[in-house]
From TrEMBL:
Superkingdom per UniProt: Bacteria
Record CDD domains: MobA
Name assigned to this protein: Probable molybdenum cofactor guanylyltransferase
Listed GO MF terms: GTP binding; metal ion binding; molybdenum cofactor guanylyltransferase activity
Cellular compartments per GO CC: cytoplasm
Amino acid sequence: MLNYFSLKMIDKKNITGIILAGGKSSRMGTDKGFLTLNEKPFIQHSIDALTPLVSEIIIVSDNPDYNVLGYERVTDIIKDAGPVAGICSGLEASKTDYNLVLSCDIPLIKTEVLEKLIVNRDTDADIIQIESNGKTMPLIALYKKQCHIVFNELLKKDERRLRVAVNQCRVKNIPLESKDYNTTMNVNTKEELKQLEHAHNH
Ligand SMILES: Nc1nc2c(ncn2[C@@H]2O[C@H](COP(=O)(O)OP(=O)(O)OP(=O)(O)O)[C@@H](O)[C@H]2O)c(=O)[nH]1
């Protein structure tokens, strides 16, 4: 639960939420942000988890259908170049030093998990990312705006691998307790969608 004291420590004015909702969705075949869980679009689950923590939300996608949600939408600085370009586009558009970056395919994500990134921020790390069951999650992470400079340089050299880009920055991992592992489940295929619905219902 978010409590009064932890909420007081979070200065929402200094944090922007950036949701990546581009890409090809080649494994799923349809835009993942508009899949639903409990009749709510996946992207709305990301928005709802971010809202208590951020002053602004930016959706990074070339798909104008996302405009219906009423948030600022920016397009990718390089089309179809993957999450590095998506993050870069969001960071360039952001007006704040700290930015919570989320993918749009993690509908079990919770504010309480994202809050751990914020309360653990320190001046040395450029990226603070969740570690869930031993796996680091650069798409559930807090980025300093300045990361766009490094990411841009890599894109110019045609380096598009997100893990390579992240490792060029100063990174801190925040391991989750096992009870929270489910909150980071992402969905790439119809089979994974069934597994997620099962995890949600049990
Ligand atoms: N803005 C933007 N977001 C992206 C891009 N590629 C992936 N994403 C987002 O990054 C997250 C993880 O995406 P992946 O599942 O790795 O890739 P995908 O292209 O959506 O799906 P696959 O084609 O099946 O790999 C999702 O939220 C995607 O919407 C991109 O080029 N631009």
